[in-house]
Amino acid sequence: MSILAVLEQRSGQWNRMSFETLAAAQQLAKELGTTASAAVLGHGVEALANELTSKQLERIYAVEHELLQDYTPDAYCAALGQFVDQFHPGILLFPHTYQVRDFLPKLATARNRVAVSDVVAHRIDGGHVVLVRQLFQGKVNADVRLAGESPHFASLQAGAYRADQVAEGTAAAEVFHPSISPAQIRTTPRELFRESQRAVDLGSADIIVSVGRGIKEADNIALVQQLADALGGELAASRPICDAGWLPMERQVGSSGQTVAPKLYLAVGISGAIQHLVGMKGSRTVVAINKDANAPIFEVADYGIVGDLFQVVPELIEAVKRAK
Length: 324
Ligand SMILES: Cc1cc2nc3c(=O)[nH]c(=O)nc-3n(C[C@H](O)[C@H](O)[C@H](O)COP(=O)(O)OP(=O)(O)OC[C@H]3O[C@@H](n4cnc5c(N)ncnc54)[C@H](O)[C@@H]3O)c2cc1C
Known about the structure:
Helix content: 25-40%
Strand order of the largest sheet: 9-8-7-10-6-1-4-5-11
Bound molecules: flavin-adenine dinucleotide
Radius of gyration: 22 Å
Largest sheet: 9 strands, mixed
Structural class: alpha/beta
Distance between the termini: 61 Å
């Protein structure tokens, strides 16, 4: 049961999650006593594949075709389908990116398989691979046991595996040329969406006070702003706050927002979903205020206050002012 990490690139640049997938594939292969390989799809991706020859991999495949230059689900599924038919990988691991979410269910369903999405961990149980997914905002972990015929397909949540744990070694690279015709492709790629330049650089802030849905209303954010001001820190937020337009997108922390590593990260009314944690777990000290003692944020918090933020935050503001 060999493992294949299917890596993502765009315009010749690696998606940073590709290396997390590579690390996961290596770990899983080691635990199963098998080999890990990697594949990268695109046009002119041989040089990228060659960059991986210093990694501990059985083989690296540049899946090369001019119709893979711009992403389309039809071309990606055609190419990967042919790849699977030729090389028979046992488990294919993907980074859980927007692109993978777009084509992986189609690829898996076409082979009567399921795509196990958003995996945060794995273990081996009696020789079987068990993949862990989070449900109900991270309150419940579900074990998914891989059963039946291979291939199996899974995508890995951002931050679940560490890119800096990719093992070094040697690997041979080869090119795989799938056969794809323009008639197979039913979508026309347009110009890529580019985010506007950010005005706030949370990445360089020493103190961040971050607010979540526990704040209940937009008007209440002023309270958390006062705490940020008292501490001399920047205000940030979880995604629902930015989605609601209560704070600008550039203040969002998490897998689809900014990654921050301040000296102090104060999470106010934030549950601690994995997508939020991956953006802030590099913080030196994490303080969480949450009325739910079982909120996942407490798992990464150095200091936790179980209580109502509307009582705790005003008292903290007073305490900070007094201390100053
Ligand atoms: C593809 C994708 C990408 C995502 N990207 C991101 C991202 O970049 N960043 C991000 O943050 N999320 C992201 N999410 C969303 C993420 O899954 C969670 O839904 C989100 O982080 C939850 O935000 P929250 O903690 O503010 O809200 P909730 O999960 O609703 O938590 C609110 C918390 O406030 C507490 N609370 C309520 N009232 C009070 C009170 N009076 N006092 C104290 N505590 C109180 C509750 O106990 C609860 O724990 C993403 C999701 C997906 C699917």
